[in-house]
Write a structure and sequence with these properties.
Strand content: 15-25%
CATH topology of the largest domain: Nucleotidyltransferase, domain 5
Mean pLDDT: 87
Number of strands: 15
Low-confidence stretches: none
CATH class of the largest domain: Alpha Beta
Helix content: 25-40%
CATH architecture of the largest domain: 2-Layer Sandwich
Length: 511
Protein backbone atom coordinates (compact mmCIF):
# COMPACT_ATOMS: atom_id res chain seq x y z
CA UNK A 1 0.00 0.00 0.00
CA UNK A 2 1.32 3.48 -0.87
CA UNK A 3 2.72 5.60 1.94
CA UNK A 4 2.49 9.42 2.07
CA UNK A 5 4.22 12.03 4.17
CA UNK A 6 2.29 13.02 7.25
CA UNK A 7 0.72 16.50 7.42
CA UNK A 8 -1.58 18.40 9.76
CA UNK A 9 -3.52 21.66 9.36
CA UNK A 10 -3.65 22.14 13.14
CA UNK A 11 0.02 23.04 13.50
CA UNK A 12 1.11 26.65 14.05
CA UNK A 13 4.01 28.43 12.32
CA UNK A 14 5.51 31.62 13.69
CA UNK A 15 7.23 33.51 10.85
CA UNK A 16 9.05 36.77 11.63
CA UNK A 17 8.43 39.33 8.87
CA UNK A 18 10.56 42.39 8.23
CA UNK A 19 8.37 44.77 6.24
CA UNK A 20 11.36 46.70 4.97
CA UNK A 21 12.89 43.57 3.40
CA UNK A 22 9.68 42.80 1.48
CA UNK A 23 10.39 45.74 -0.82
CA UNK A 24 13.19 44.36 -2.99
CA UNK A 25 15.42 46.54 -5.21
CA UNK A 26 14.58 46.38 -8.90
CA UNK A 27 10.86 45.84 -8.37
CA UNK A 28 8.05 48.25 -9.12
CA UNK A 29 7.21 48.61 -5.44
CA UNK A 30 10.82 49.57 -4.68
CA UNK A 31 10.70 52.31 -7.33
CA UNK A 32 7.30 53.46 -6.06
CA UNK A 33 8.46 53.54 -2.45
CA UNK A 34 11.69 55.39 -3.27
CA UNK A 35 10.15 58.00 -5.56
CA UNK A 36 7.21 58.82 -3.26
CA UNK A 37 9.46 59.09 -0.21
CA UNK A 38 11.63 61.66 -1.95
CA UNK A 39 8.69 63.90 -2.89
CA UNK A 40 7.32 66.94 -1.12
CA UNK A 41 3.65 66.06 -0.73
CA UNK A 42 2.66 69.02 1.42
CA UNK A 43 0.08 69.88 -1.26
CA UNK A 44 -2.14 67.20 0.33
CA UNK A 45 -2.06 68.86 3.76
CA UNK A 46 -4.88 71.18 2.74
CA UNK A 47 -7.32 68.26 2.81
CA UNK A 48 -7.09 67.98 6.59
CA UNK A 49 -8.23 70.33 9.36
CA UNK A 50 -7.30 68.33 12.45
CA UNK A 51 -4.39 70.41 13.74
CA UNK A 52 -5.96 70.89 17.16
CA UNK A 53 -9.09 68.74 17.18
CA UNK A 54 -10.25 65.60 15.47
CA UNK A 55 -8.76 62.18 14.93
CA UNK A 56 -5.37 61.72 13.30
CA UNK A 57 -5.42 60.97 9.57
CA UNK A 58 -3.57 58.47 7.44
CA UNK A 59 -0.45 59.94 5.89
CA UNK A 60 -1.05 60.72 2.16
CA UNK A 61 2.32 59.03 1.49
CA UNK A 62 0.89 55.72 2.73
CA UNK A 63 -2.37 56.11 0.82
CA UNK A 64 -0.59 57.02 -2.42
CA UNK A 65 1.76 54.05 -2.20
CA UNK A 66 -1.10 51.65 -1.55
CA UNK A 67 -3.33 53.04 -4.32
CA UNK A 68 -0.61 53.23 -6.97
CA UNK A 69 0.61 49.72 -6.16
CA UNK A 70 -2.95 48.38 -6.40
CA UNK A 71 -3.47 50.15 -9.74
CA UNK A 72 -0.27 48.56 -11.03
CA UNK A 73 -1.84 45.18 -10.30
CA UNK A 74 -5.13 46.10 -11.97
CA UNK A 75 -7.00 46.49 -8.66
CA UNK A 76 -9.24 49.58 -8.74
CA UNK A 77 -11.97 48.83 -6.20
CA UNK A 78 -11.39 50.59 -2.86
CA UNK A 79 -12.70 47.53 -1.00
CA UNK A 80 -10.19 45.26 -2.72
CA UNK A 81 -7.39 47.77 -2.09
CA UNK A 82 -8.25 47.73 1.61
CA UNK A 83 -8.25 43.94 1.47
CA UNK A 84 -4.76 43.98 -0.06
CA UNK A 85 -3.52 45.95 2.95
CA UNK A 86 -4.55 43.03 5.15
CA UNK A 87 -3.56 40.07 2.95
CA UNK A 88 -0.82 41.08 0.49
CA UNK A 89 2.61 41.15 2.14
CA UNK A 90 4.01 43.76 -0.29
CA UNK A 91 1.01 46.02 0.20
CA UNK A 92 1.35 45.55 3.96
CA UNK A 93 4.98 46.61 3.70
CA UNK A 94 4.14 49.71 1.63
CA UNK A 95 1.44 50.69 4.13
CA UNK A 96 3.72 49.97 7.11
CA UNK A 97 1.10 47.45 8.29
CA UNK A 98 -1.58 50.11 8.62
CA UNK A 99 -5.06 49.14 7.50
CA UNK A 100 -6.93 52.12 6.01
CA UNK A 101 -10.67 51.58 5.63
CA UNK A 102 -12.03 51.34 2.09
CA UNK A 103 -14.07 54.53 2.62
CA UNK A 104 -10.83 56.37 3.45
CA UNK A 105 -9.25 55.12 0.23
CA UNK A 106 -12.31 55.96 -1.88
CA UNK A 107 -12.59 59.46 -0.42
CA UNK A 108 -8.87 60.11 -0.93
CA UNK A 109 -9.00 59.19 -4.64
CA UNK A 110 -12.25 61.01 -5.42
CA UNK A 111 -11.14 64.23 -3.69
CA UNK A 112 -7.61 64.51 -5.11
CA UNK A 113 -8.54 66.93 -7.90
CA UNK A 114 -5.65 69.21 -8.89
CA UNK A 115 -3.39 67.49 -6.36
CA UNK A 116 -3.30 64.52 -8.73
CA UNK A 117 -1.92 66.78 -11.48
CA UNK A 118 0.77 67.97 -9.04
CA UNK A 119 1.70 64.35 -8.33
CA UNK A 120 1.91 63.60 -12.06
CA UNK A 121 4.14 66.64 -12.57
CA UNK A 122 6.51 65.59 -9.78
CA UNK A 123 6.85 62.05 -11.16
CA UNK A 124 7.41 63.48 -14.65
CA UNK A 125 10.19 65.66 -13.23
CA UNK A 126 11.86 62.51 -11.89
CA UNK A 127 11.55 60.95 -15.35
CA UNK A 128 13.27 63.95 -16.88
CA UNK A 129 16.04 63.89 -14.28
CA UNK A 130 16.60 60.21 -15.13
CA UNK A 131 17.04 61.16 -18.81
CA UNK A 132 13.90 59.30 -19.91
CA UNK A 133 12.56 62.11 -22.12
CA UNK A 134 14.22 62.67 -25.47
CA UNK A 135 12.35 65.87 -26.50
CA UNK A 136 12.38 64.77 -30.13
CA UNK A 137 8.74 63.88 -30.79
CA UNK A 138 5.52 63.96 -28.76
CA UNK A 139 2.72 61.71 -30.08
CA UNK A 140 -0.85 62.67 -29.12
CA UNK A 141 -3.74 60.23 -29.23
CA UNK A 142 -6.79 59.07 -27.29
CA UNK A 143 -8.14 55.81 -25.87
CA UNK A 144 -11.90 55.38 -25.44
CA UNK A 145 -12.79 53.71 -22.13
CA UNK A 146 -16.20 52.82 -20.69
CA UNK A 147 -17.54 54.88 -17.81
CA UNK A 148 -19.42 53.80 -14.69
CA UNK A 149 -22.85 54.25 -16.26
CA UNK A 150 -25.09 52.63 -18.86
CA UNK A 151 -26.08 53.70 -22.37
CA UNK A 152 -29.64 52.94 -21.31
CA UNK A 153 -29.83 56.29 -19.50
CA UNK A 154 -28.65 58.33 -22.50
CA UNK A 155 -30.67 60.51 -24.83
CA UNK A 156 -31.72 64.02 -25.71
CA UNK A 157 -34.42 65.70 -23.64
CA UNK A 158 -37.05 64.74 -26.21
CA UNK A 159 -35.87 61.11 -26.29
CA UNK A 160 -35.85 60.86 -22.50
CA UNK A 161 -39.35 62.34 -22.32
CA UNK A 162 -40.55 59.76 -24.84
CA UNK A 163 -38.88 57.02 -22.82
CA UNK A 164 -40.59 58.20 -19.63
CA UNK A 165 -43.90 58.17 -21.51
CA UNK A 166 -43.38 54.55 -22.56
CA UNK A 167 -42.60 53.58 -18.99
CA UNK A 168 -45.79 55.30 -17.77
CA UNK A 169 -47.81 53.34 -20.33
CA UNK A 170 -46.22 50.10 -19.10
CA UNK A 171 -47.14 51.02 -15.53
CA UNK A 172 -50.75 51.76 -16.54
CA UNK A 173 -50.98 48.41 -18.33
CA UNK A 174 -49.65 46.46 -15.34
CA UNK A 175 -51.89 48.32 -12.90
CA UNK A 176 -54.96 47.63 -15.05
CA UNK A 177 -54.03 43.99 -15.41
CA UNK A 178 -53.31 43.77 -11.72
CA UNK A 179 -56.78 45.11 -10.88
CA UNK A 180 -58.81 43.07 -13.34
CA UNK A 181 -56.99 39.73 -13.58
CA UNK A 182 -58.50 36.76 -11.83
CA UNK A 183 -55.38 35.51 -10.01
CA UNK A 184 -55.12 32.14 -8.33
CA UNK A 185 -55.29 32.80 -4.55
CA UNK A 186 -53.15 29.72 -3.93
CA UNK A 187 -50.30 31.11 -6.03
CA UNK A 188 -49.52 34.72 -5.03
CA UNK A 189 -46.15 34.78 -6.86
CA UNK A 190 -47.62 36.36 -10.00
CA UNK A 191 -49.14 39.22 -7.99
CA UNK A 192 -45.80 39.77 -6.21
CA UNK A 193 -43.92 39.84 -9.52
CA UNK A 194 -46.30 42.43 -10.95
CA UNK A 195 -46.06 44.60 -7.84
CA UNK A 196 -42.26 44.45 -8.00
CA UNK A 197 -42.33 45.36 -11.71
CA UNK A 198 -44.62 48.33 -11.02
CA UNK A 199 -42.32 49.54 -8.25
CA UNK A 200 -39.21 49.34 -10.42
CA UNK A 201 -40.87 51.03 -13.39
CA UNK A 202 -42.05 53.89 -11.15
CA UNK A 203 -38.50 54.36 -9.89
CA UNK A 204 -37.18 54.53 -13.45
CA UNK A 205 -39.84 57.05 -14.51
CA UNK A 206 -39.21 59.24 -11.45
CA UNK A 207 -35.48 59.10 -12.09
CA UNK A 208 -35.92 60.37 -15.65
CA UNK A 209 -38.50 63.07 -14.88
CA UNK A 210 -36.52 64.26 -11.85
CA UNK A 211 -33.38 64.67 -13.95
CA UNK A 212 -35.22 66.43 -16.77
CA UNK A 213 -36.60 68.96 -14.29
CA UNK A 214 -33.12 70.19 -13.35
CA UNK A 215 -31.10 69.75 -16.56
CA UNK A 216 -31.14 71.06 -20.12
CA UNK A 217 -29.96 69.47 -23.35
CA UNK A 218 -26.23 69.26 -24.01
CA UNK A 219 -25.29 71.06 -27.21
CA UNK A 220 -22.84 69.76 -29.75
CA UNK A 221 -20.30 71.66 -31.84
CA UNK A 222 -23.02 72.72 -34.29
CA UNK A 223 -25.34 73.97 -31.55
CA UNK A 224 -27.74 71.04 -31.94
CA UNK A 225 -28.80 68.89 -28.95
CA UNK A 226 -26.74 65.78 -28.30
CA UNK A 227 -27.37 62.86 -26.01
CA UNK A 228 -27.05 63.46 -22.27
CA UNK A 229 -26.68 60.77 -19.62
CA UNK A 230 -28.68 60.79 -16.41
CA UNK A 231 -26.05 58.93 -14.37
CA UNK A 232 -22.88 60.65 -15.62
CA UNK A 233 -23.66 63.61 -17.83
CA UNK A 234 -19.97 64.35 -18.42
CA UNK A 235 -19.59 61.08 -20.34
CA UNK A 236 -20.75 60.51 -23.90
CA UNK A 237 -21.56 57.81 -26.41
CA UNK A 238 -18.35 56.97 -28.26
CA UNK A 239 -17.89 54.80 -31.34
CA UNK A 240 -15.10 52.22 -30.94
CA UNK A 241 -13.89 49.16 -32.83
CA UNK A 242 -15.97 47.07 -30.41
CA UNK A 243 -19.17 49.05 -30.89
CA UNK A 244 -20.63 52.13 -29.21
CA UNK A 245 -19.80 52.64 -25.53
CA UNK A 246 -20.78 55.18 -22.89
CA UNK A 247 -17.50 56.55 -21.66
CA UNK A 248 -14.61 58.99 -21.88
CA UNK A 249 -11.76 59.62 -24.26
CA UNK A 250 -8.51 59.32 -22.30
CA UNK A 251 -5.88 61.39 -24.12
CA UNK A 252 -2.12 61.29 -23.59
CA UNK A 253 0.92 63.01 -25.06
CA UNK A 254 3.82 60.53 -25.15
CA UNK A 255 7.54 61.12 -25.68
CA UNK A 256 9.09 58.79 -28.25
CA UNK A 257 12.33 57.96 -26.41
CA UNK A 258 10.93 55.60 -23.74
CA UNK A 259 7.16 56.11 -24.22
CA UNK A 260 6.93 58.37 -21.17
CA UNK A 261 3.59 60.19 -20.77
CA UNK A 262 4.23 63.94 -20.59
CA UNK A 263 0.56 64.95 -20.28
CA UNK A 264 -2.71 63.15 -19.61
CA UNK A 265 -6.37 64.18 -19.51
CA UNK A 266 -9.87 62.98 -20.34
CA UNK A 267 -12.73 64.45 -22.36
CA UNK A 268 -16.34 63.33 -22.48
CA UNK A 269 -16.76 63.47 -26.26
CA UNK A 270 -15.14 62.25 -29.44
CA UNK A 271 -14.41 65.72 -30.88
CA UNK A 272 -10.65 65.35 -30.72
CA UNK A 273 -9.87 68.21 -33.08
CA UNK A 274 -11.76 70.66 -30.89
CA UNK A 275 -9.53 69.83 -27.91
CA UNK A 276 -6.14 70.08 -29.64
CA UNK A 277 -5.51 73.78 -28.75
CA UNK A 278 -6.16 73.06 -25.06
CA UNK A 279 -4.03 69.91 -25.19
CA UNK A 280 -1.06 71.75 -26.68
CA UNK A 281 -1.42 74.50 -24.09
CA UNK A 282 -1.45 72.02 -21.19
CA UNK A 283 1.46 70.00 -22.64
CA UNK A 284 3.51 73.17 -22.71
CA UNK A 285 2.47 74.07 -19.14
CA UNK A 286 3.32 70.57 -17.89
CA UNK A 287 6.79 70.67 -19.46
CA UNK A 288 7.40 74.15 -18.09
CA UNK A 289 6.58 73.05 -14.52
CA UNK A 290 8.85 70.03 -14.68
CA UNK A 291 11.78 71.91 -16.21
CA UNK A 292 11.67 69.99 -19.49
CA UNK A 293 11.49 73.23 -21.45
CA UNK A 294 9.91 76.68 -21.30
CA UNK A 295 8.98 76.68 -24.99
CA UNK A 296 8.79 72.96 -25.63
CA UNK A 297 6.35 73.19 -28.57
CA UNK A 298 8.99 74.96 -30.65
CA UNK A 299 11.55 72.31 -29.73
CA UNK A 300 9.78 68.99 -30.31
CA UNK A 301 7.85 67.61 -33.24
CA UNK A 302 4.13 67.00 -32.63
CA UNK A 303 2.33 64.08 -34.29
CA UNK A 304 -1.37 63.25 -34.06
CA UNK A 305 -3.79 61.21 -36.13
CA UNK A 306 -6.48 62.38 -38.55
CA UNK A 307 -9.01 63.00 -35.79
CA UNK A 308 -7.08 66.10 -34.69
CA UNK A 309 -6.95 67.63 -38.17
CA UNK A 310 -8.96 70.74 -38.97
CA UNK A 311 -8.30 73.99 -40.78
CA UNK A 312 -8.37 75.91 -37.47
CA UNK A 313 -5.85 73.54 -35.88
CA UNK A 314 -3.53 73.73 -38.87
CA UNK A 315 -3.70 77.52 -38.67
CA UNK A 316 -2.91 77.36 -34.95
CA UNK A 317 0.21 75.21 -35.30
CA UNK A 318 1.47 77.32 -38.21
CA UNK A 319 1.01 80.60 -36.35
CA UNK A 320 2.70 79.24 -33.23
CA UNK A 321 5.63 77.85 -35.19
CA UNK A 322 4.96 74.26 -34.12
CA UNK A 323 6.47 71.54 -36.31
CA UNK A 324 3.37 69.37 -36.35
CA UNK A 325 2.51 66.38 -38.53
CA UNK A 326 -1.26 65.91 -38.51
CA UNK A 327 -2.61 64.25 -41.70
CA UNK A 328 -5.95 64.93 -43.34
CA UNK A 329 -8.40 62.21 -44.34
CA UNK A 330 -6.87 61.84 -47.80
CA UNK A 331 -3.40 61.16 -46.43
CA UNK A 332 -3.30 57.48 -47.36
CA UNK A 333 -4.95 57.91 -50.74
CA UNK A 334 -2.00 60.07 -51.76
CA UNK A 335 0.54 57.47 -50.56
CA UNK A 336 1.75 55.18 -53.33
CA UNK A 337 2.16 52.37 -50.78
CA UNK A 338 -1.64 52.28 -50.36
CA UNK A 339 -2.65 52.70 -53.99
CA UNK A 340 -4.11 49.16 -54.01
CA UNK A 341 -5.71 49.45 -50.56
CA UNK A 342 -9.25 49.30 -51.96
CA UNK A 343 -8.55 46.26 -54.11
CA UNK A 344 -9.51 43.77 -51.43
CA UNK A 345 -12.33 45.72 -49.82
CA UNK A 346 -15.75 44.16 -49.89
CA UNK A 347 -17.73 45.53 -52.79
CA UNK A 348 -21.00 47.26 -52.02
CA UNK A 349 -23.95 45.14 -53.09
CA UNK A 350 -25.67 46.52 -56.17
CA UNK A 351 -22.82 48.87 -57.00
CA UNK A 352 -23.24 48.22 -60.72
CA UNK A 353 -26.66 49.46 -61.84
CA UNK A 354 -29.08 46.89 -63.13
CA UNK A 355 -29.94 46.86 -66.80
CA UNK A 356 -31.82 50.03 -67.60
CA UNK A 357 -31.32 51.32 -64.04
CA UNK A 358 -29.48 54.59 -63.40
CA UNK A 359 -28.31 55.98 -60.07
CA UNK A 360 -28.82 59.66 -59.41
CA UNK A 361 -25.68 61.75 -59.82
CA UNK A 362 -24.88 65.30 -58.71
CA UNK A 363 -26.52 66.67 -61.86
CA UNK A 364 -29.87 65.22 -60.76
CA UNK A 365 -29.87 67.41 -57.64
CA UNK A 366 -31.21 70.95 -57.91
CA UNK A 367 -28.73 73.56 -56.62
CA UNK A 368 -29.83 77.13 -55.95
CA UNK A 369 -26.78 79.37 -56.33
CA UNK A 370 -28.44 82.42 -54.75
CA UNK A 371 -29.55 80.73 -51.51
CA UNK A 372 -26.89 78.00 -51.55
CA UNK A 373 -29.54 75.32 -50.94
CA UNK A 374 -29.77 71.87 -52.53
CA UNK A 375 -32.86 69.82 -53.35
CA UNK A 376 -32.80 66.06 -53.91
CA UNK A 377 -34.62 64.37 -56.86
CA UNK A 378 -37.53 63.57 -54.53
CA UNK A 379 -37.99 67.26 -53.76
CA UNK A 380 -36.64 67.15 -50.21
CA UNK A 381 -34.18 69.78 -48.95
CA UNK A 382 -30.67 68.69 -47.92
CA UNK A 383 -28.57 70.25 -45.16
CA UNK A 384 -25.14 71.79 -45.62
CA UNK A 385 -22.63 69.43 -44.02
CA UNK A 386 -19.29 70.98 -45.11
CA UNK A 387 -19.43 74.56 -46.45
CA UNK A 388 -15.75 74.59 -47.46
CA UNK A 389 -15.20 71.09 -48.80
CA UNK A 390 -11.85 70.40 -50.46
CA UNK A 391 -10.86 67.30 -52.34
CA UNK A 392 -7.89 65.21 -51.27
CA UNK A 393 -4.84 67.20 -52.19
CA UNK A 394 -6.75 70.48 -52.05
CA UNK A 395 -7.15 70.72 -55.81
CA UNK A 396 -10.92 71.28 -55.95
CA UNK A 397 -13.32 72.96 -53.56
CA UNK A 398 -17.07 73.15 -53.13
CA UNK A 399 -19.92 72.40 -50.72
CA UNK A 400 -20.94 69.03 -49.32
CA UNK A 401 -24.62 68.33 -48.57
CA UNK A 402 -26.39 65.44 -46.84
CA UNK A 403 -30.00 64.35 -46.84
CA UNK A 404 -32.11 64.12 -43.69
CA UNK A 405 -32.42 60.57 -42.39
CA UNK A 406 -36.19 60.94 -41.99
CA UNK A 407 -36.48 61.74 -45.69
CA UNK A 408 -34.06 59.11 -47.03
CA UNK A 409 -35.25 56.19 -44.88
CA UNK A 410 -38.72 55.96 -46.44
CA UNK A 411 -38.08 57.59 -49.80
CA UNK A 412 -39.55 55.86 -52.88
CA UNK A 413 -36.46 56.78 -54.89
CA UNK A 414 -34.01 55.35 -52.34
CA UNK A 415 -33.09 52.34 -54.49
CA UNK A 416 -31.96 54.68 -57.28
CA UNK A 417 -30.20 57.12 -54.97
CA UNK A 418 -28.31 55.04 -52.37
CA UNK A 419 -26.26 52.00 -53.37
CA UNK A 420 -25.52 50.54 -49.92
CA UNK A 421 -28.59 49.51 -47.94
CA UNK A 422 -26.79 50.32 -44.66
CA UNK A 423 -26.23 53.97 -45.66
CA UNK A 424 -28.70 56.14 -43.77
CA UNK A 425 -28.68 59.24 -45.95
CA UNK A 426 -27.33 60.39 -49.33
CA UNK A 427 -24.38 62.75 -49.47
CA UNK A 428 -23.60 64.97 -52.47
CA UNK A 429 -20.77 67.40 -53.16
CA UNK A 430 -21.33 70.36 -55.46
CA UNK A 431 -18.01 71.70 -56.73
CA UNK A 432 -17.50 75.29 -57.81
CA UNK A 433 -18.15 76.02 -61.48
CA UNK A 434 -15.22 75.15 -63.67
CA UNK A 435 -13.63 73.02 -60.95
CA UNK A 436 -11.35 75.88 -59.99
CA UNK A 437 -8.32 75.29 -57.91
CA UNK A 438 -8.65 75.78 -54.16
CA UNK A 439 -6.90 78.62 -52.43
CA UNK A 440 -3.70 77.98 -50.51
CA UNK A 441 -5.07 77.04 -47.08
CA UNK A 442 -3.35 75.83 -43.93
CA UNK A 443 -4.65 72.34 -44.74
CA UNK A 444 -2.85 72.42 -48.08
CA UNK A 445 0.33 73.60 -46.37
CA UNK A 446 0.12 70.65 -43.96
CA UNK A 447 -0.44 68.30 -46.89
CA UNK A 448 2.70 69.57 -48.59
CA UNK A 449 4.68 69.09 -45.37
CA UNK A 450 3.47 65.61 -44.50
CA UNK A 451 3.56 64.18 -48.02
CA UNK A 452 7.37 64.21 -48.11
CA UNK A 453 9.26 60.95 -47.58
CA UNK A 454 10.95 62.27 -44.44
CA UNK A 455 7.67 63.38 -42.89
CA UNK A 456 5.94 60.08 -43.67
CA UNK A 457 8.82 58.22 -42.04
CA UNK A 458 8.51 60.38 -38.93
CA UNK A 459 4.74 60.05 -38.78
CA UNK A 460 4.99 56.26 -39.09
CA UNK A 461 6.61 56.24 -35.63
CA UNK A 462 3.56 57.84 -34.03
CA UNK A 463 1.57 54.63 -33.65
CA UNK A 464 4.55 52.76 -32.20
CA UNK A 465 4.98 55.53 -29.64
CA UNK A 466 1.53 56.14 -28.21
CA UNK A 467 -0.51 53.00 -28.93
CA UNK A 468 1.67 50.68 -26.77
CA UNK A 469 0.95 52.98 -23.81
CA UNK A 470 -2.79 52.43 -24.20
CA UNK A 471 -2.23 48.71 -24.69
CA UNK A 472 -0.15 48.60 -21.50
CA UNK A 473 -2.78 50.46 -19.46
CA UNK A 474 -5.78 48.57 -20.84
CA UNK A 475 -4.16 45.14 -21.13
CA UNK A 476 -1.46 44.74 -18.50
CA UNK A 477 -2.91 47.18 -15.95
CA UNK A 478 -6.50 46.20 -16.80
CA UNK A 479 -7.90 49.71 -17.12
CA UNK A 480 -10.89 48.74 -19.25
CA UNK A 481 -13.50 50.73 -17.30
CA UNK A 482 -13.52 53.83 -15.14
CA UNK A 483 -15.08 53.22 -11.73
CA UNK A 484 -15.68 56.87 -10.81
CA UNK A 485 -18.24 59.33 -12.20
CA UNK A 486 -17.80 62.90 -13.32
CA UNK A 487 -15.03 64.34 -15.49
CA UNK A 488 -12.89 65.56 -12.57
CA UNK A 489 -12.89 62.21 -10.78
CA UNK A 490 -12.38 60.23 -13.98
CA UNK A 491 -9.50 62.53 -14.87
CA UNK A 492 -7.95 61.70 -11.48
CA UNK A 493 -8.17 57.97 -12.15
CA UNK A 494 -6.74 58.33 -15.67
CA UNK A 495 -3.87 60.51 -14.41
CA UNK A 496 -3.03 58.06 -11.60
CA UNK A 497 -2.78 55.25 -14.13
CA UNK A 498 -0.42 57.36 -16.24
CA UNK A 499 1.64 57.98 -13.07
CA UNK A 500 1.85 54.19 -12.62
CA UNK A 501 2.99 53.88 -16.25
CA UNK A 502 5.73 56.50 -15.76
CA UNK A 503 6.89 54.85 -12.54
CA UNK A 504 7.30 51.65 -14.54
CA UNK A 505 9.55 53.52 -16.96
CA UNK A 506 11.67 54.75 -14.06
CA UNK A 507 11.92 51.18 -12.77
CA UNK A 508 13.03 49.83 -16.15
CA UNK A 509 15.20 52.62 -17.56
CA UNK A 510 16.09 54.86 -14.62
CA UNK A 511 19.12 54.72 -12.39
Amino acid sequence: MARYKAYSYEQKIMIPVSLERQILPGTFEYTLNTVIDQMDLSVFDGRYHNDTTGASAYDPVILLKVILYAYSKGVVSSRKIAQLCEENIVCMALSADTHPHFTTIADFVSSMGERCVELFTKVLAVCYSENLIGKHMFAIDGCKISSNCSKEWSGTKAELLAKAGKIEKSIEYLVTKHQTADLDPDDPTEREREEESIRKLKQRAEKITGWLGTHEDKLGAGGTPIKSNIIDNDSAKLATSHGVIQGYNGIAAVDDKHQTVVWAGVYGDSNESGHLPKILEEVEASCRKTGIGDDILRTVKITADTGYHSEQNMKLVCEKGIEAYIPDRGFRTRDVRFKDAGKYKKKVAGWQPEKGRKYFGPKDFVFNEESGSLMCPAGNPMWLKTPNFQSAGGRYKGKSYMGHIRHCSGCELRSRCIRDEHTKARQVTIFDHGGGTAELTYTVLMQRRIDTAEARSLYSKRMGTVEPVFGHLAGTKRLNRFTLRGKDKVNTQWTLYCVVHNLGKIQKYGA
